[in-house]
Amino acid sequence: MAHLWQKLMSLPFLRSEASDGAGGTSGASPSAFLLDPQSATHLARLTGRPCNRLIYRTALTHRSVLHDHHSEEDKPESNQRLEFLGDAVLDLLISEHLFKQFPGSDEGHLSSNRAKIVNRKSLAAFALELQLGEHLIIGESADKQKIRTSESALADALEALVGAIYLDQGLAGAERFITNHVIAKVDLHKLVEAEYNYKSRLIEYTQSRQLSPPLYTVIAEEGAEHEKTFVVEVSCNGQPLGRGTAPRKKDAEQLAAREAMTMLDSQNPFTPVAES
User: Fold this and answer.
1) Binning pLDDT at 50, 70 and 90, where does residue 172 land?
2) Active site residue 251
3) DSSP state of 137
């Protein structure tokens, strides 16, 4: 697998983003894209490399910055592309670790356990411990404090940082970072035993009682485009069971399912009332 990633890294469109120096962005002075000294020092401690390059600044650039730049010229890049790459690198390395750590687990269990580690809540917790929120580059018109503590923004920043490390230091560098700052910080055996997937639990509940599948409905969308929050309600057989609010629909659905399971554990609205 490492050879595959090395071959991918030889492709020009990937290597061009990881060029030496502050970056070869056309139409802008390289110094305009340098990290501030405090953030550069902090990232150097985390990654083990001098952090004065465009790629690390991009990893910390929240998409709200784009809303303050109306001209395409000199427009910065947000961390969304790096987030996409970092997500794939995280999946690969966590999958490899679980594959070796749990030789008796089948594909289904490995996939489920990976999802419990590489999810928004867990990634945001790792990012919070690494103080990434304090170093995010946020648009002037955005709510900085809200974004710095946002689960979604923190998780995105961690994935983007992994993507930046991968482009800068290769798979070995990304593996060192994930081993030191993700795998070493959790009790994997305890984590994989925890039940986080409330949506699956709710499906099992409805199936075991011959009920209709849970229905998730977005009942509200709040906030600006780059700070949007979704309110999702879950129902079954026309009976509202719970609501969840989060920056991502999937996370809001999980929260709604969790509220539903909490309610269903104490009462059963589907039990028919005995006729007198």
Assistant:
1) very high
2) no
3) B
